[in-house]
Amino acid sequence: MDRSKALPEDVETLDGIIHASYALISGKAGEPRDWERFQSLFVDGARMMPAVSGANPRLRVLSVEEFKQRVKPIFETENFWERESGRKTELVGRFAHVLSEYDSLRDPEGTPFARGTNSMQLYHDGERWWIVSIMWNTERGE
Questions:
Q1: pTM
Q2: CA dihedral 135, 81, 9, 120 (to 10 degrees)
Q3: What are phi and psi of 108, to 5 degrees?
Q4: d(CA 4, CA 41)
Q5: Which pLDDT does position 4 carry in this prediction?
Q6: Cβ within 8 Å of residue 34, ≥6 positions away
Q7: What is the pLDDT of residue 54?
Q8: Where would you tag: which of 71, 111, 138, 141 has the fewest CB atoms within 10 A of its CB?
Q9: What is the 3-state secondary structure (H, E, C) of 28-95?
Q10: Per residue of the chain (142 residues), what is the pLDDT tens digit?
Q11: How far is 62 from 47, CA to CA, in rounded Å?
């Protein structure tokens, strides 16, 4: 899918793009994710950055493709859903900073096995929203 041809319902609103970002990585083990549609949410050069805690704290900086390669093997063997549980949004001109709290689950109706927060930076080009970067930290610190 050409990034400029994302599904309108995914990119017309902040709610739409944030909902799509969670929905597209969620699913049963072995269930294919729509990586083309996922990629269509992001500007060229977008970054995905898990903040890793523990004995060796660091920030991992990944392209969207590197993120996909990192999680694909996990999604092959593990059920994984994320759902937003809270949000704080700041809009400034054409960009937004969103702190999106989320639950990670093995079953969409189940109990979370982890919680975390995404710091999302988004840009509106006059026609649609784009994700510029997502930095996150879970309570597990990964």
A1: 0.92
A2: -10
A3: -60, -20
A4: 9
A5: 61
A6: 24
A7: 77
A8: 111
A9: CCCCCCCHHHHHCCEEEEEEEEEEECCCCCEECCEEHHHHHHHHHHHHHHCCEEEEEEEEEEEEECCE
A10: 455 679 999 999 999 999 999 999 999 999 999 999 999 999 999 999 999 887 888 899 999 999 999 999 999 999 999 999 999 999 999 999 999 999 999 999 999 999 999 999 999 999 999 999 999 987 665 5
A11: 6
Only one residue has tokens 């988004």, namely: 122
Distance between the two ends of the chain, CA-based, in angstroms?
30
Between strands 129-138 and 42-52, the pairing is: parallel
Whole-angstrom Cα distance, residue 100 to residue 133? 13
* 83 token code pair: 């759902």
Q: How many CA atoms lie within 13 A of 45 on its CB side?
A: 0
Number of alpha helices (DSSP H) and beta strands (DSSP E) in the chain:
4, 7
86 is written with which tokens?
């809270």
Residue 20 and residue 37 in contact, taking contact as beta carbons nearer than 8 Å: yes
State the sign of the Cα–Cα–Cα–Cα dihedral 2, 12, 120, 73. Answer: negative
Q: 8-18 pLDDT, tens per residue?
A: 999 999 999 99
